[in-house]
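Morning. Coffee machine broken again, so started the prediction first thing and wrote up yesterday's gels while waiting. Chain of 387 residues, entered below exactly as on the submission form.
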Amino acid sequence: MKRLVLPLFIILLIVPTISAKEGHMKLLAVKETDNGYEGAVADLYLEIKEGSGRVFLDTFPLTKVDTQISTRFAKDIACSYLNKDCSGYDFIYTIMADSPIIAGPSAGGAITLLTLSLLDDFKLDEKTGITGTINSGGLIGPVGGIKEKINAAKNIGLKKVLIPEGERFVKEENNVVEKVEITVENRSVVKNVSISNQTIDLLEYGRANGLEVVEVSDINGALYEFTGKKFEKENYEIQIDAGYEKTMSFLASQLCNRSDKLMGEVNDVYNDKYNKTMSSILNLTSKTGIAVSKGRYYSAASYCFGANVKLSYLLLALTNATKDDIAEKREIIIKNIDKLEGGIVTREKKTVTDLEAYMVVKERLIESKEYEEEVPKENITEKDLLD
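Came back before lunch.
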């Protein structure tokens, strides 16, 4: 009996192969400078090839640990959206920038879209950019620094920027300074006068800078803006893990209760000297109410945390805290940081998730010690309150 010998090219046609796919898009981010935060741009690359479901991330300069976690989650969202088994692929992400950027979760939306485009073989509009986190159910979540990111998009020639729904209006917390001519002792003097904060409509701001700014709430909307095609998934339901929602709801409640307590203490000793600071705080607390009403507890917790930081500083300023008072509070903070650090070091780590959580918390504790060194040791000014 003769054995059947097939030519190699026929075997290759019969046996399915997975060819490597590569893609690229611009990533909108912010960077920290001596003058505050500025818009920045990075290059996001993705290579998908045959493998075992692993996710790799290479960044230069180095980014925060939670960028790694966000990248893995974005990949999972993309595979779930397409109802695709990705266990036979390796995903290699690369983020390259000219200077250190703050990426973290805010790159999640962009990473998800690039992953989808390669998995489903379609092209993304290279003149469109996006900023926003990616959440369960494919929801695009809120981020900071959107105005700065719009500036960065303009500088590299993008024509459209997608932002999270509900983030259209932002408070401009920096002083707006105008030159005003006044009369002093019968002679004219030109002085710089600070004008109160203003609310910026980011859609109008983008239009004034030659950009179309569009709010999107989920992956479906983002894909339409990038491709012009409808990608509605009939069976793609929004599912939020009950455990996650319960945890974030509890955290938001704790942080916002502290906001109420601090606000009560501030109101007892408040004076009009700090109206600019109070406006900034009220802006955060108003966003909290909107976030809670929509079930966005992560956002609510973030807003209340920010308000608590400003309220704590404001209380020190209003009560004329002495150098010794500030030193005492600094000592308490350092002791709490050391206590938390000791607890996470000794805690048993059984899973990759445990290790990731440890790395994120550890990194934040290191940052906390660095920030503690930057805190003014005396004479707190309104600039300190708003920075």
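The CA atoms of residues 66 and 357 lie 9 Å apart. Going to sketch it on the whiteboard this afternoon.
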